[in-house]
Design brief:
This protein is an alpha+beta fold and 252 residues long. It is 18% helix and 37% strand. The chain has two domains: 44-151 and 241-250, Thrombin, subunit H, CATH 2.40.10; 153-238, Beta Barrel (Thrombin, subunit H). Strand 14 and strand 15 (231-236) form a beta hairpin.
Length: 252
């Protein structure tokens, strides 16, 4: 009886170890070791249409692959813009909303059309950046997909102090077809947000919100949220992963 129990425990331990290793051993993207010119197109910008106003090339966005769905993602603090124009006071696009499109900047023929806002919450007041940064993710269904846009896989690892990560996106006044890649070093991870030091030189920080932050393996590890003093603020995937877990459970 003892031998059987010991054997069962050993099998359980090996299965658990295998699960842990598979979670940590998400394979690097095949393109991450190649030249930047050969990277797939995954960074996007946003155009949001209301009944009488259209916001063109607002911040950045991207697609994610969850294993079950391809979803569109950008930063939640864009709602501060909508609030300031009188469209809404909560995380709800409002009655005048018409359409949300994403595409590589300057390449509107490659557009992705967003579907419903999955983390819509009419009871969540918009507030200011400090109240939004700990959950600075907007997650949409995808209504119309473009095959040229590459969805990112979510990293299984959290950012750690001194990790090197990369933000891929456009500054507000940047009009190049290819987004820039900004090299950063993790200064501190506080759970929902992380502070980073920018290592790349001559970086224009304006308008980079919503840019995907990838790790050395090409996996999504955060989203550019803003800046505080000399440090950048990155929204970690903690909120995103928690939301996706609840979203998958709620699906019929």
């Amino acid at each position: 009886m003892k031998k059987k129990t010991l054997f069962s425990c050993l099998i359980s331990f090996l299965l658990l170890l295998g699960c842990v290793q598979s979670k940590e051993d998400l394979l690097p993207e095949p393109w991450i070791g190649g030249s930047y010119a050969e990277w797939p197109s995954f960074a996007l910008t946003n155009t949001i249409e209301y009944a009488d106003t259209t916001f063109h090339d607002l911040a950045n966005g991207f697609l994610i692959e969850t294993g079950n769905d391809t979803l569109a993602v950008t930063c939640k603090h864009l709602f501060m813009v909508f609030r300031n124009h009188g469209f809404t006071n909560s995380i709800d696009l409002g009655e005048g909303f018409k359409q949300w499109k994403m595409y590589p900047k300057g390449q509107r023929k490659k557009e992705v059309i967003a579907g419903p806002l999955l983390n819509r919450n009419p009871r969540e007041e918009i507030g200011d950046f400090n109240t939004l940064k700990v959950r600075d993710w907007l997650v949409f269904e995808v209504k119309q997909m473009n095959s040229h846009i590459y969805p990112l896989k979510i990293s299984n690892r959290a950012m750690r102090k001194n990790d090197i990560v990369y933000a891929v996106g456009w500054a507000q006044k940047q009009n190049t077809l290819k987004p820039s890649v900004v090299k950063m070093k993790v200064y501190r991870n506080l759970g929902s947000i992380a502070y980073v030091q920018t290592l790349s030189r001559n970086v224009d920080p304006s308008g980079r919100s919503g840019s995907p932050v990838i790790d050395k393996n090409g996996h999504l590890i955060g989203l550019v949220s803003g800046a505080e003093g000399n440090l950048g603020v990155v929204a970690t995937t903690a909120y995103l992963q928690g939301f996706l877990t609840q979203y998958q459970k709620a699906k019929p």
